[in-house]
Task: structure prediction
Amino acid sequence: MVDFSGILDVSCIEIDVEAASRDEVIRKAIELLEKSGKISQGDSMYHDIMAREQLASTAIGEGIAVPHALSDAMQSTVMAVLRLKTPIDYNAPDGKPVDLFFIMAGPKNDTAYHLKLLSRLARLLHDPHFRERARAASNAEELAALLLEKD
Result:
């Protein structure tokens, strides 16, 4: 079974983040991944995620976006989770502003694993109870536990 324990570390989760745009959210997520030592080529990851965003918004509705990409710069799959203090417009299909971001990138040669993770994440994010608890989490540890308890 595909789970998040191998790709998500509490050091890559931040709540009450201030960001005013898609670009700023993605940059902050990449900075978080770099600071935690999970990635070393942040510029490449940023470029690949933004190229994916140009194809179509990764907002899935209900205030959630899942920016993601496959990248030659990645050795393994990583994830960062950011909850914004104030939701931003993200061109979501339901028109709702987005406050929960699950940013993920993995190696280009690992498409099947990437798709399985996206599928698992999408199922979880469509659960209203999970979304409510994610928005109520008081710290990164609590938000991480929500994702990891589902494994």
